[in-house]
Amino acid sequence: MTFLSPEWLSALASIVLIDLILAGDNAIVIALAARSLPTHLQKKAILWGTIGAIVVRSLMTLVVVWLLKIPGLMLAGGLGLVWIAYKLLVPGGDEEHGGGGATTFFGAMKTIIVADALMGVDNVLGVAGAAHGAFDLVVIGLLISVPIVVWGSSVVLKLVDRFPIISYLGAGVLAFTAAKMIVGEPLLKPVFDPNEIARWAVYAVVIAGVLLAGRMMARRAEAHTGAA
């Protein structure tokens, strides 16, 4: 497509629209991942986490045709996102308990980029289709959406600080996205396409499982902190 031609501009508008629709999930991941950082690092993590996620998603778009040939990719991505949704509620390993989210700058960056890559597996397909092979359109569309994602993350972060229950709503949204990827796995099409009950059961189990497990571990961490 010729640069700035009607077709080019139309494709760019489609990509920006797709990116903006997806910005809600991105904003939630970024805000939850950064909320346990010191205040002076939160904005830095939001900015660089967004940039890193954009680079990863751009590279994924370049190899989208190859990605589609990998059996089980959507299933693996969905299961990975389930774990990240849980970790955003209750940090594990060597991270501090009690607040959820990463407690170091690079920990937050890693969470943001990995989560976005997992969520972007199916989303990248729409962007690649709208771009018709023009990588410059993909990059420009993503760059246009950056300020909106950063602004949205900042807003969500302030709301989470004021209303902690939003952390669980955000984790629920990520769990829903994970369930959507799992039931959308082509290998599982014979299981879910003819069986609507099985499809909704996966949504219920994944969302409820993440929220309940996260709440239980949060209470355990609170009890441990109180006893210390």
TrEMBL record:
It is found in: Membrane. It is a multi-pass membrane protein. Keywords: Membrane, Transmembrane, Transmembrane helix. Pfam families: TerC (PF03741). It comes from the Bacteria. The chain crosses the membrane at residues 12-34, 46-67, 73-90, 102-121, 127-151, 163-182, 197-214. PANTHER family: MEMBRANE BOUND PREDICTED REDOX MODULATOR, SLL1022 PROTEIN. NCBIfam families: R_switched_YjbE. Belongs to the TerC family. This is TerC family protein.
